[in-house]
Design brief:
The structure holds two protein chains of two kinds.
Chain A lengths: L1 H37 L6 E6 L8 E3 L2 E3 L1 H13 L2 E6 L2 H9 L5 E2 L7 H4 L2 E3 L4 E2 L2 E6 L15 E5 L3 H12 L4 E5 L2 H9 L5 E5 H9 L6 E8 L4 E2 L2 E3 L3 H16 L2 H10 L4
Helix pairs in contact in A: 2-8, 2-9
Chain B lengths: L11 H8 L2 H8 L1 H33 L4 H16 L2 H16 L4 H27 L2 H9 L4 H31 L11 H12 L2 H32 L1
The chains are: A alpha/beta, B mainly alpha.
Chain lengths: 270, 236
């Protein structure tokens, strides 16, 4: 009886795998056809790297990559004559991926800062962000960076929020800084009381406070490091692509599309 | 790219050209930082294996029990922890389950997750070890008037002990490598330290190469220790 069931299962799995492989072949041929049709006017593909767990800049909805950055890079790609293909990577892997040519450019709410600019070239800045402190709803008495001395902080690996957290730690060694792969985990840590505060980019924290973190997490104090701006990263020395992306960005800004996207994702918040 | 810059001549030229390699500088400057992470890796591993052995011995024996409840619980536990990825178990425990019971930091959560996981594997090692002892041993012990428990404690387990040593050391090595996954809950062991360096200096080959080397030294040492113990056991 048991043997029979196992045999049935195995046969079932075999049939399934065969069926899937046929479907795969069929899809491939249609893809090839589509590619053949397009061959008349081939558009170069722009491979984009992004860490897609950073709403509202880049995240997934129904399996699609959505968000401000995603819309923007698609618009820039169209303006510069590219087909845009987005890959998701860890935030700390983005810069190595673009410098080794695994992706053509990276857009991931990445602040233009000195040590990054040593390794990759950045486009013109496209977004002004700045950092803000987030604490649990019931926390009182934290308003500024100085209030964070000796407290427990969480941040995402490789971010300016982590730099700021380490800055606090440098002033007071009693401060602990926990590092996570994505900011979502840092917020979870804050919600479960594992840390006292999270320092992160203001627009993202603001989005979190309004959505998943509603009534659990709040923003305190003023935006700081407000001069920080996001840029699109490109392999060092690839001036051709850099020019194209900058021109694309200019076009998107001039046509008013940028403002439309800004309204779509951030409303009137400045 | 900087590797090409190394000239083939040795001497002071060679040393100064080495200093020109950014990655090497980063790695040598942050060696203590990485080794501190390796120490935490060893802590987590050792504690996990100790707790895992206790857990594994208990569940391994339960798995062979005739008591249906004990058997069911042990089977469920072993199947779950062997049948799901450790990465997922760590996230589930740290963010999902542990907060309901206690305020566990990343270190404690890491040890709990790795102990539970390795316990499931050790349980199977223990079961296999006991079953590998000749059936006649149990029969002989029972016919001498020993109870089942006495026979287990004084006759079967001491023999099984010898059989399970090599696979246990393999498990030790496996756990050591698996602890790299607890980086995800901010336990600052070797892998997370590597990740932090890498996200600052972007020297992938140098930083991950060094991290891999440190792991390798640790696992190789354990493997050599295992060979030694096995040899000692064999001559006795």
């Amino acid at each position: 009886m048991v043997k029979k069931t196992i045999r049935l299962l195995l046969v079932g799995m075999l049939i399934m795998s065969l069926a899937f492989s046929f479907v795969g072949c069929a899809q491939k041929t249609t893809e090839n056809k589509a590619a053949d049709n397009k061959a008349a006017a081939p558009k170069p593909v722009l491979t984009v790297g992004s860490e897609t767990t950073y709403a509202p800049f880049e995240y997934t909805e129904n399996g699609e990559y959505v968000g401000f950055d995603m819309d923007l890079i698609r618009a820039i790609g169209t303006a510069a004559g590219y087909d845009v293909k987005i890959n998701t990577l860890g935030f700390d892997s983005l810069i190595p991926a673009v410098s080794s040519g695994k992706v053509d450019c990276i857009i991931s709410a990445m602040t233009i800062k000195e040590d990054r600019a040593k390794v990759v070239d950045f486009s013109k800045p496209y977004f002004k962000a700045g950092l803000i402190i987030a604490v649990a709803q019931k926390t009182e008495g934290i308003k500024t960076l100085d209030d964070l001395k000796g407290k427990r902080l969480a941040a995402e690996v490789g971010t300016t929020g982590l730099d700021a957290s380490n800055g606090v730690k440098a002033k007071d060694p009693k401060t602990t800084v926990k590092v996570f792969d994505s900011v979502g985990e840092a917020f979870m840590e804050l919600e479960k009381g594992g840390v006292d505060a999270v320092i992160n980019d203001m627009p993202v924290t603001s989005y979190y406070v309004k959505t998943k973190g509603k009534d659990k997490v709040k923003m305190v104090g003023e935006v700081f490091a407000a001069e920080d701006q996001y840029g699109i990263g490109i392999k060092k020395g690839n001036t051709e692509l850099l020019t194209k992306i900058n021109e694309g960005l200019d076009k998107v800004k001039a046509s008013g599309e940028y403002d439309t996207l800004y309204k779509k994702w951030f409303g009137d918040q400045k | 790219m900087s590797l090409i810059a190394v000239p083939l001549t040795l001497g002071s030229d060679f040393i100064s050209s080495l200093q020109a390699i950014n990655g090497l500088q980063v790695v040598s400057k942050h060696m203590p930082y990485l080794l501190e992470g390796a120490l935490l890796t060893l802590y987590i591993t050792t504690l996990s294996v100790i707790f895992g052995m206790i857990l594994g011995l208990i569940t391994g024996l339960c798995k062979m029990s005739k008591n249906r409840i004990l058997f069911g619980v042990a089977t469920g536990y072993i199947d779950f922890f062997r049948g799901t990825p450790l990465y997922v178990q760590i996230l589930l425990l740290y963010f999902g389950i542990l907060p309901l019971f206690m305020d566990a930091g990343p270190f404690i959560a890491a040890v709990i997750a790795c102990s539970l996981n390795s316990g499931a594997y050790i349980a199977e090692i223990v079961r296999a070890g006991i079953q590998a002892v000749d059936r006649g041993q149990m029969e002989a012990a029972r016919s001498l008037g020993m109870t089942n428990r006495q026979a287990m404690t004084y006759v079967i387990l001491p023999q099984a002990y010898k059989i399970v040593i090599p696979p246990l050391l393999n498990e030790f090595i496996a756990v050591l490598k698996d602890t790299s996954l607890v980086a995800v809950i901010s336990a600052e062991e070797l892998t997370l330290r590597g990740k932090l360096l890498y996200s600052t200096f972007f020297e992938a080959a140098w930083i991950w190469g060094t991290v891999a080397l440190i792991y390798f030294i640790m696992t190789k040492t354990l493997a050599l220790l295992g060979d030694y113990i096995e040899r000692r056991m064999a001559t006795e």
